[in-house]
Amino acid sequence: MPWRKQVEQWRQYAIWEGQGAPPDLLLSIIRNESGGIAGRPANVGTKFKFPIPLRSGGTRVMDRAYGLMQCIPAVILDYNKAHPGQPVYFDDMAGKTHGAGRLQIRVGAWLYNKMVRRLHHFYPERFPGKTAATASEDQLILALVAYAIGLGALLKRLDVLKEEGKPFTIEALNERFPLWGYSKSKGKWINRPLHYGGKVWARYLRNRTNDPGSTDLPPNPGGQPGDVIGKKKPMFDVGYAVPIMLILAVWVMSSFWGKRK
Q1: pTM for the complete prediction?
Q2: Residue 74 DSSP class
Q3: Residues 219, 15 contacting (CB under 8 angstroms)
Q4: What pLDDT score was predicted for residue 259?
Q5: Number of domain units in the chain
Q6: What does the DSSP 8-state code read for residue 79?
Q7: Are the C-beta atoms of 24 and 226 separated by less than 8 Å?
Q8: List of the chain residues with pLDDT < 50
Q9: Is 257 inside a domain boundary?
Q10: Is residue 164 part of a domain?
Q11: How far apart are CA 180 and CA 191, in angstroms?
């Protein structure tokens, strides 16, 4: 089943920015988080609000998740600390252009890959894969759970499974923690990380393709991405528009004066 056009348009950037993660898995996250709409803000805010730099200078308080992969303010701060030479700005996370969308994928893919690496770091015997390219399916799925709820909350529950001698799988977590994310005081689900991980993974399996995508054009290394590959080229270069217009004007004028004679 192919992705809808609004999601599929980001495939090339998912390949470039994925750091080895399956591009269709990143597209599945994008489908779930934003529907493929660049710069999309979350419907609800977060209690952890932080000032994020603006390209024009100064900062703006970011009070909710933004972008194709719905990254929260704390993630933007962590990303910028890890990449001091190429920071991401609030304008990028809220931007609607293809260039902004690429940066939104860059940050989201960085976060997802960080979850994969950290799972290996804490449980190397259970998750021998050091990267998303070498990780097992269980590791990739649980990285989705961590993407949704945070790594700390997942590690606490994995420690319980380890003590009880149970496998590190989403099925074991569902059996042991069926109400994870349910608020008894409010009487409703606040966050359903296991449902999130299972849903995103199932959609990935339904929509993934064996097409590795184009890798012949390298990503822009300067951090200022261009348009999505596959965008139609104009009929003629804008640089030629002025001389063509002048030639047409001269031809029209000469025809006019010729008729008068």
Answers
A1: 0.82
A2: H
A3: no
A4: 53
A5: 1
A6: H
A7: no
A8: 215-218, 221-240
A9: no
A10: yes
A11: 8
Q: What is the pLDDT of residue 231?
A: 41
Beta strands in 21-119 (DSSP E): 50-53, 59-62
Decide if 44 is inside a domain.
Answer: yes
Contact 90, 63 (CB under 8 A): no
- Contacts (Cβ under 8 Å, ≥6 apart) of 133: 20, 21
Burial-class residue 25 by CB neighbours within 10 Å (0-12, 13-18, 19+): buried
Q: Which two tokens stand for residue 229?
A: 């590959």
**Domain containing 202: what range?**
5-233
User: Exposed e or buried b for every residue in 147-184, given b needs 16+ CB within 10 A?
Assistant: bbbebebbeebbeebeeeeeebebebbeeebeebbeee
Report the C-alpha gap between 256 and 238 in whole angstroms.
Answer: 28
Q: What 3-state class would DSSP assign to 71?
A: strand
Residue showing tokens 């980001």: 10
Return the closest-CA partner of residue 100 out of 68, 76, 70: 68
Q: pLDDT value at position 2? A: 86
Q: What is the CATH number of the domain that holds 43?
A: 1.10.530.10
- Give SS3 for 259: helix
134 falls within a domain: yes
Contact 56, 19 (CB under 8 A): no
